[in-house]
Amino acid sequence: MAKTTAPLLSFGGSGQIGKTMVYGSWKGRSYVRRHVTPANPQSAEQTITRNAFSFLQSVYKYAPALVTDVWTAYATGLVMTARNGFTKFNLPVLRGEPDLANMVLSGGANGGPPPTNAVVTPGNNQLSVAVTAPTTVPTGWTLTSAVVAAIEDQDPDSGTLFTITAGEDTTDPYTVVLTGLNEQLYQVRAWLKWARPDGSVAYSPDFATTGTPT
Question: Which residue in 55, 57, 88, 105 has the most C-beta neighbors within 10 A?
Fold first, then answer.
C-alpha cells in the first residue's frame, strides 16, 4: 500500500498501489513507475554481466580513499552515487573481457588535465611509478599531487582479488612507490589531482599502464 505526503495536494508518495504503480523518491527526487515482477534470467550473457557487476561492487567496497574520492567528486551534482559512477565507467568495458586491461580507476572530475606519461619500474614486491605532468595547464590551476593505483590483473567474470594499492606524491618530480605487492601482473593507473582557481578540486582521467613486481 502506498503512503502519501499531503495527499490532497499530491506532494509525494511511496510504495505501490494495487500492483499497478509504484511511487518513491531517490536522492531527493520523486518518481513513479509501473509495478513489475522482477525477472531472474540465467542466460550466459546475463550471468557474465552479473559477475562483472558483482566484481566491481567488491572492488569499490575495498577501494582506498585515493580512489573513491575521485568518484565522489565525479558524482557531485549528478543523480547517481560515487559507486554508480565507478560502475558506469567500468561495466561496459570489462563485461566479457578476460582481464582488467580496460579498467578505469579515475574517470576524471571537473576537467582535470591528465598526465602525459607514467613509467613503471619493477622492484622487489613493489612498483615505482614516475608520473609526468602536462607542461601546459589552464590559467590559475595548481597541480596538487600525482596519484597511482594498482590492482592485480584478473578475469572480472571470476575475479576475487579486490585489493587496490594506491599512493600519491605531492612534489615534483612525481614518483609513487607501491609496496607489498605480489609477483604477478598489475594493472597500474596514474592520474593528477588539481586545485582550480575557485578553490575546488579537479581530477584527471587516468593513464593506463602495467607492471610486474620482481
Answer: 105
Instruction: Specify the number of domains making up the chain.
Output: 1
On the 0-12 / 13-18 / 19+ scale of CB atoms within 10 A, 184 is exposed
Q: What is the DSSP string of 119-177?
A: EEEEETTEEEEEEEPPS---TT-EEEEEEEEEEE---TTT-----EEEEEE-SSSEEEE
Contact by Cβ (8 Å): 56, 87: yes
Domain extent for 177: 44-211
C-alpha cell belonging to residue 143? 597541480
Place of cell 599512493: 167
Q: Residue 171 belongs to a domain with what CATH number?
A: 2.60.40.10
Domain membership of residue 133 (yes or no) is: yes
Which grid coordinates are listed for 177?
Answer: 612507490
Amino acid at 65: A
Q: How far apart are CA 158 and CA 156, in angstroms?
A: 5
In a domain, 126, yes or no: yes
Q: Read off the pLDDT of residues 62-99 as tens digits, 9 standing for 90 and up.
A: 999 999 999 999 999 999 999 999 999 999 999 999 99
Structure pTM?
A: 0.81
The neighbour count for residue 193, using CB atoms within 10 Å, is 23
